[in-house]
Structure formats: structure tokens, C-alpha cells
Write a structure and sequence with these properties.
Length: 108
């Protein structure tokens, strides 16, 4: 599937134990994509988030229901969970859990 030249998107942010996580969700009639980045640049976490972003994009464009992706990511915990008032359960358990929270909030 080819990415269109122009897409509509939104970037959301959420605090995690690793820092501020930014998730960009771009959509068109024929293609969807997700980009995940931490406020910090580079490093191992950046490469993991790039891989997760590509996997979400691939699955979503292969007709995987977003609910299934969210369920798979929600609740994954790292050693540095973050208490965030106003979020579901009041906690962001990991960067992956933060991605799930943003996807759930943004994707209808």
C-alpha cells in the first residue's frame, strides 16, 4: 500500500517514566500511519519506538482492528511507571501503555 502525498493528522503527548511521549496519527481514505517519539532523541528507546510505530502502521493497514492493537499494548509495565492524574487508572505503566492510551483516546 502506497502512502498518499497528503494526510490529515494529530499529535498527542503523554508523560511516561521515560519522559514525554509524542504519538502522531496520520489518516487518509486509503492509508493510516503512526509515529511514536520520546522527547529525548536517539538511543535504544528511539529505535524500539520506531519499530513499534512501523508495526502499528503495518497492522492497521492490513485490516487489524485498532481495538486489538490497543488491547495488546494496554497494561504492559516497565520499571518506571508514572502517576498521571486524569488518565485511565491514573497511571501510565510504560511507553507502550502510553501509546495504547493515546490510540484509545484518538481513534474512533
Amino acid at each position: 500500500m502506497k502512502r498518499p502525498i497528503s494526510m490529515t493528522g494529530v499529535t498527542e503527548e503523554i508523560e511516561t517514566g521515560c519522559g514525554t511521549l509524542y504519538v502522531t496519527i496520520n489518516r487518509s481514505d486509503s492509508y493510516n500511519e503512526v509515529f511514536c517519539r520520546l522527547g529525548k532523541s536517539g538511543g535504544c528507546s528511539a529505535s524500539w519506538l520506531d519499530g513499534i510505530s512501523r508495526l502499528i502502521t503495518f497492522a492497521w493497514n492490513s485490516n487489524t482492528k485498532m481495538e486489538a492493537i490497543i488491547r495488546a499494548f494496554a497494561g504492559i509495565q516497565c520499571p518506571s511507571p508514572r502517576l498521571i492524574p486524569g488518565t485511565e487508572n491514573g497511571m501510565v505503566l510504560s511507553c507502550v501503555d502510553g501509546i495504547a492510551k493515546i490510540l484509545k483516546r484518538v481513534i474512533p
